[in-house]
């Protein structure tokens, strides 16, 4: 039941963010608390920790969007410079690698490579979403395809279906965030 409630809040938050609605951020914040509980009980520890980090990045994104919304009535996508994209991707790749090593050494995580790697990539996508970089939606779509399989393998069927839907929402968000 908790998984279903978390999925509903999470889907609502992502849909509203794709619409560039500020209310998507607090709804997503609530979803992180709910999914933290779900992932902990599924022994997906990197994803559990990721929910806590997402809470912080959601507060960051919410503050950025609220500030920009106060200055202007619209929230247009922002360009992402290639050099910045490469540096940030490399940084999150290193974070993911360390996360995978930690999970392999100090946890009973059944899928440390996927759990750690997807968690690091998700943080990068979340950062780019907070900054309103359109490319974040394509990154999310790719991540969510892989997460769908991971969640099915952990018997989190509702979450797997949610992430399958997120793949489509990622493509929709990319289309919707045209300049």
From TrEMBL:
Belongs to the nicotinamide ribonucleoside (NR) uptake permease (TC 4.B.1) family. Its main location: membrane. The chain crosses the membrane at residues 44-65, 85-104, 158-175. It comes from the Bacteria. Required for nicotinamide riboside transport across the inner membrane. InterPro entries: NMN_transpt_PnuC (IPR006419). It is found in: Cell membrane. It is a multi-pass membrane protein. This is Nicotinamide riboside transporter PnuC. Pfam families: NMN_transporter (PF04973). Keywords: Cell membrane, Membrane, Transmembrane, Transmembrane helix, Transport.
């Amino acid at each position: 039941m908790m998984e279903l409630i978390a999925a509903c809040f999470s889907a609502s938050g992502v849909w509203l963010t794709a619409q560039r609605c500020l209310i998507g951020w607090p709804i997503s914040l609530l979803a992180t608390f709910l999914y933290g509980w779900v992932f902990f009980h599924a022994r997906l520890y990197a994803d559990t920790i990721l929910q806590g980090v997402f809470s912080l990045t959601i507060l960051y994104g919410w503050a950025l969007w609220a500030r920009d919304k106060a200055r202007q009535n619209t929230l247009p996508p922002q360009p992402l410079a290639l050099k910045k994209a490469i540096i940030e991707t490399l940084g999150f790749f290193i974070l993911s690698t360390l996360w995978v090593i930690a999970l392999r050494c100090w946890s009973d995580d059944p899928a440390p490579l996927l759990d750690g790697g997807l968690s690091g990539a998700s943080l990068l996508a979340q950062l780019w979403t907070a900054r309103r970089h359109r490319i974040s939606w394509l990154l999310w779509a790719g991540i969510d395809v892989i997460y769908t399989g991971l969640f099915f393998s952990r018997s989190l069927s509702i979450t797997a279906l949610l992430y399958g839907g997120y793949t489509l929402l990622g493509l929709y968000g990319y289309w919707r965030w045209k300049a």
